Amino acid sequence: MEGILPLFKPAGMTSHDCVFKLRKILKTKKVGHTGTLDPDVTGVLPICIGRATKVAEYITDAGKAYEGEVTLGYSTTTEDASGEIVEKKQVDRILSRNEILKVLQSLSGEIVQTPPMFSAVKVNGKRLYEYARQGIEIERPSRTVTIHNIELLDKRQEFSGENIRFSFRVSCSKGTYIRTLAVMIGELLGFPAHMSHLSRIQSASYTLEDCLTLEDVAEHMETGTIDEVLRPLESALYHLPKYTINDKVAEKVKNGALLEVPECLINIEGPITLETEEGLALAIYSKHPEKTGLLKPVKVLRNNQDL
Question: Helix (H, G, I), strand (E, B), or coil: what is residue 152?
């Protein structure tokens, strides 16, 4: 069994919980997810099965999109609705639509975020949430992320009440904390805030419409139709430059040989998918860091034993 399974992750389960259940349903151990979703978060969780686990990082590195809800009036330890209240401040004025739109616009492009204490980022060999559970707060490394697009989904012209809530949609780079983004939105509006709801609506090329539930997967296993719903591993590499090779070069690629950089790839930086004329991805290559004019293999995806 091999391919990408776009899974709909339900609330109340960790990403690891989903992998554990799928290993049992699919009767295979070679199953991996492509980036952690918090237990309360629902939505798109691409699962890599079999040989497709080799391309998991390329799904993780691709962009993602979310629909979330910000609640103004109080912040929490976890930056979402599951945490304990840290700070409260009643929303004592009406917020205009334009004011919120300006704040969202100011967060477009490259922004700097500090990961929340309740996150899976490692510092000194331990996850931040491990420190947080012990009541220890440590200095966290900030990171630069990119907000490609952010829009207000609420149609109101004015927002009022003790705890104002509004929904937004955001597409962003990997490593973006939407919880932290909700807190930043609140800070720019002058109030403590937290993320009160979140769903991932897209990861790489996979959307909510593509997703199957755990129950759907179990049903496909029972009916023997699971292969019909798995996406090929090539679908995980859609965003990488492609270079088509002939059979002679393919033999070299399957053995991990160095190649001369073709003229059409001279200005390309980063990973490149080398594929057969039939569109079968054989390997990921990149420019050799020391030997000018040569490509080196990053990952061989298929060799003669696999074909």
Answer: strand
CA 171, CA 67: separation in Å to the nearest integer? 9
259, 262, 267, 269 alpha-carbon torsion, rounded to 10° = -30
Residue pointed to by tokens 């609705």: 81
Which residue is catalytic, options 38, 216, 247, 306?
Answer: 38
| Total tally of structural domains belonging to the chain | 3
For 161-195, write each residue's pLDDT tens digit. 888 999 999 999 988 999 999 999 999 999 999 99
18 assigned to some structural domain: yes
**CATH number reported for the structural domain that contains residue 217 in this entry:** 3.30.2350.10
Domain extent for 54: 3-62+204-236
- Helix, strand, coil share of the chain (percent; to 5): 30, 35, 40
Q: Token pair for residue 223?
A: 């009916």
Q: Name residue 49's beta-bridge partners.
A: 3, 31
- 41-87: per-residue pLDDT in tens? 999 999 999 999 999 999 988 889 999 999 999 999 889 998 889 89
**Residue 306 falls inside a structural domain:** no
Are 82 and 197 in a shared domain? yes
- 306 noted as active-site residue: no
Q: How far is CA 43 from the centre of its chain?
A: 11
Establish if 179 belongs to a structural domain.
Answer: yes
Q: How many other β-carbons are positioned within 10 Å of the β-carbon of residue 162?
A: 12
Q: Burial, 264: exposed, middle or buried (Cβ in 10 Å; 0-12, 13-18, 19+)?
A: exposed
